[in-house]
Amino acid sequence: MAQGGTRKTNVADVPSGSWIKCQSCGEVIYKKSLKEADFVCGSCQKHFRMDSVTRLSTVLDEDSFEEFFTHLKTVNILEFKGYDKKIATLKEKTKLHEGIVTGTGTIDATKLPLVLWILVS
Ligand SMILES: [Zn+2]
User: Fold this and answer.
1) Enclosing domain of residue 110
2) How far does residue 28's CA lie from ligand 1's centre (Å)?
């Protein structure tokens, strides 16, 4: 096993969905190991993209995040062509209601409120 929780694996033996190939160095990484390594390739140090929920879970104390503005919904007020379909597709893909996640949380039980925003792409 290589440093950082990765290992060389024959791609033909990789079960679908459990492994990911590093786009930078070609290393095949077990997804669980990648999460334990904070989404950094142990072979080349490439930082993988994370969704907003995962990003928050790596930064904040467990169950400390309180989201703001959960009642707001994206609307196509300027009536851009195709925008409604794009919004629907992204909502389905991300399971989020907005393109930005905002809220407060704590780090190491620090009582000062933190304001974070995570742009969802
Ligand atoms: Zn890599």
Assistant:
1) 49-121
2) 8
Report whether 56 contacts 118 (CB < 8 A): yes
- 22 conformational bin, left if phi > 0, alpha if psi -120 to 50, beta if neither: beta
68 Cα–ligand 1 center, Å:
36
Give residue 98 CA to ligand 1 midpoint distance, Å. Answer: 31
pTM assigned to the model: 0.60
Q: What is the pLDDT of residues 10-34, one digit of tens each?
A: 555 545 688 999 999 999 999 889 9
Report which residue type is found at 35.
K
The string of pLDDT tens digits covering residues 94-121 is 888 888 888 888 888 876 666 777 766 5
Residue 6 lies in a domain: no
Query: Do the domain assignments include residue 4?
Result: no
Q: Is residue 2 part of a domain?
A: no
Determine whether 97 is exposed, middle or buried from the number of CB atoms within 10 Å of its CB (0-12, 13-18, 19+).
middle
